[in-house]
Amino acid sequence: MATLAERILGGAAGTYLDRQIDTAYAHDGTGVLTLQAWEEMGGGIPAHPEQLQILFDHIVPANNSTTATLQQKLRTFSRASGIRLSDCGEGICHQVLAEGGVLPGSVVIGADSHTCTLGAFGAFATGVGATDMAAIWASGCIWLKVPETIRVDLTGELTGAAEPKDLALRYVSLLGMGGATYRALEFTGEGAASIPMEGRLTMANLAIETGAKAGLFYADQETRRYLAASGRDDDGAVTQVPEEGKYLETLTIDLADVEPLVAVPNRVDTVRPVTDVAGVRLDQVFLGTCTNGRYGDLARFAAIVKGKKVTVRTVVVPASQKVLAEAASTGVLADLISAGCMIGPPGCGPCLGAHMGVLGEGEVCLSTANRNFLNRMGVGGSIYLSSPGTAAASALTGEITSPEGL
Fold this sequence. Notes:
By secondary structure, this protein is of the alpha/beta class. It is built from 15 helices and 18 strands. The strands form 5 sheets. A 5-stranded parallel β-sheet has the order 4-3-2-5-6. The chain has a 5-stranded parallel β-sheet with strand order 16-15-14-17-18. A 4-stranded parallel β-sheet has the order 10-9-8-11. The longest helix has 17 residues, at 65-81. The radius of gyration is 20 Å and the shape is globular.
């Protein structure tokens, strides 16, 4: 009997092994550093370019000539080496890969900490640094230690205005930042099965905020449904059945007890009920990122603000071109624009404080992102984290507001 991480990697927890990867990717930020390390290692053509991707998402379009020059260097390299390139506007790397690019049981390595998002598909997905990624370019393999696993057993179903993001903030607050360092989180139980794929992506995304190496759901019929809708109705997309593995510990959460939550500055694990911080004045609301920039997130936000007007500057950045197109075709985009929201091109947007929504000194933002560290979105700015529903209710009032009843 083995945990899901052990089954995918092919070794017992605590052992070190070399594992062939199925997919590896870098973005415009880490890709530059990876290319530098690659050239220092001798360069040449990567061993398995068909397994590699470079995706532009962090600063798109380029915000200055230095960024543009570095992106052009990556374009030139990807074309010469046969690495697939997703250029500006196609979307956030984790979301683009989630749109049919990952199958259950695969090993996915990204040069970004939130690669754990893709564990929602029953894959082992984890982030590495630029030097490790350059080594993957050279060999097609990764050397790692098989992590021990913490089981997060989910019971019941979400009720009221509670969303998967609230559940994610709940488990981060219980484990704490660093509480699962170099562990795998395994989400199990009937509660896990009740969460749709978009919600699972949000849940897996925040695993790194506990220090976890990966966050995994078991692939089931919801996984198969989502893959089929993404054009991957693949017989190889197996259904995974949990076994009685050896868990380091088990954390049990009843979804019915989850309520709308907010992570307050400057830690992701410092979480309060929305009602406890209601009334905090806001300068900006941000909807987007690899955590909550998917179509369902935009649709929930739009349903709340439709026919009304936001009273604070509100930035909406779809996670991918596909999300943007769906929002446009269904009228969600029109509802957001009519309510006074600003729409940015698909990408990471203001999340890392690069552009398209940077905060000023003393400003306060309510964001649907995954991190609220000091100065992340702008020097001197403060960040609260919430679900799309809470963000929408707050955009209407200009202060943190509960979405209950909306």
